[in-house]
Design brief:
The protein has 382 residues and is an all-alpha fold. The protein has helices at residues 2-45, 55-76, 94-109, 117-134, 140-155, 157-165, 179-210, 216-237, 261-280, 288-305, 312-327, 332-347, 352-364, 368-375.
Length: 382
């Protein structure tokens, strides 16, 4: 009897997984384009009517986002998980998905410093859940495989557009591996990892304070901090507020155009502050893309302040890699593999060794943000 129960879902498992992956990719790409279009409208098209984005506009959009997230989480559904938890894949019903995706979209389009990756995972997860049910897949492990393939297909949508357009790659004039870049990779990786770790520690303190519950005062307060950070950066540097609001990963390839170390460090400081409060206050979205930007900008800063140090391209790639690994729990082999892939895709084969060193250094640094989150006392119940 148990053999028969396993055989039925097994015969349908591969088609269900393939279907979930393909549909997840298509819907994930559609969700990503929708989010990007919304961000473009709110933070590029409308502000283009002014020479600089007005403070009242920045504050207004972010506060509205905070209120919408609060209403969604308290009235529609609160199935999403906190950004500090990274990315987790689990089955979602359509009703759970509605609450999760509305909170994510409101956060992202509203300028909160989180990424779109969780929106895609949620989309793929609900696709997998529905297909598993439709195909008659039963059992925790088979259903988990279908849901996992749906989520994987959706997350791949992040790379479809950039790979086709070639917008992930940095111009890299180096034609060979240079030993000096390997030495500097350690320095860049440490700086980038520390920057991300400090942001995560701050987010953990805020998250423990809120207790994971949606709190309108804290959400609005966090949105005001993000707004003030964006306004201050724009005022001090004259650069676009997009360097602070939103996840900013699309600006990584534009970083080499910044040649002032003071501008770059100002962006890093205000971005990290906005990132920390966005992660900890109760908004919804992914933690990886803003971390990538902060890591890449940290690498650029080192390259600018030490003219005889790392090349701009190598520093950005190493900071990029280190920030991803500082954000996620992963095994050593996966960290190294990720270093190889990112080094090749973003910086060409000559930067792979430096990227791998950055990955190893970041993996070796303790995850202090997680430690803080576990040690701080839980908030008193209301």
């Amino acid at each position: 009897m148990s053999t028969q129960a396993v055989a039925v879902p097994a015969r349908r498992l591969i088609p269900a997984m393939l279907m979930a992956g393909i549909i997840g990719l298509g819907l994930g790409y559609a969700v990503l384009e929708l989010v990007n279009a919304g961000i473009g409208l709110v933070w590029e098209t409308i502000p283009s009517n002014w020479s600089t984005t007005p403070a009242w506009y920045i504050i207004g959009v972010l506060v509205v986002a905070a209120v919408v997230v609060y209403v969604v989480r308290t009235s529609i559904g609160d199935a999403g998980h906190a950004p500090l938890q990274g990315i987790s894949v689990s089955g979602l019903t359509p009703q759970e998905y509605l609450g999760a995706i509305l909170a994510i979209v409101a956060s992202l389009i509203g300028g909160i410093v989180l990424g779109p990756e969780v929106a895609l995972v949620a989309t793929g997860s609900v696709v997998g859940t529905l297909i598993a049910k439709w195909m008659g897949i039963s059992g925790a492990k088979p259903v988990k495989k279908v849901v996992g393939l749906g989520a994987l297909g959706a997350i791949l949508a992040l790379f479809v557009g950039p790979l086709i357009a070639g917008t992930l790659s940095l111009d890299n004039p180096r034609q060979s591996i240079e030993v000096d870049q390997l030495v500097w990779a350690v320095v860049v990786a440490v700086i980038a990892t520390v920057a991300i770790t400090v942001a995560r520690v701050g987010a953990a303190v805020i998250a423990r304070w809120t207790g994971g519950r949606p709190n309108l005062v804290i959400l609005v307060g966090a949105s005001l901090i993000v707004a003030i950070a964006a306004i201050a950066m724009q005022s001090l540097t004259g650069e676009s507020v997009l360097y602070v609001v939103t996840s900013s990963e699309a600006l990584i390839t534009d970083l080499p155009t910044l040649t002032s170390a003071s501008t770059v460090i100002t962006i890093i400081i205000f971005k990290a502050i906005a990132y920390a409060v966005s992660m900890g206050a109760g908004f919804r979205g992914g933690p990886f893309f803003p971390a990538m930007f902060i890591g890449a900008a940290s690498g650029l800063f080192i390259a600018l302040v030490i003219p005889s140090g790392p090349s701009v391209q190598a520093a950005i790639v190493v900071g990029f890699v280190a920030s991803v690994i500082a954000t996620a729990r992963m095994k050593w082999w996966l960290a190294i593999a990720l270093g190889i892939v990112i080094g090749f895709v973003v910086g060409t084969w000559t930067l792979i060794p430096a990227a791998v060193i950055g990955a190893v250094v970041a993996r070796a640094v303790p995850r202090w943000g997680d430690w803080v989150a576990s040690k701080l006392p839980a908030p008193a119940s209301a």
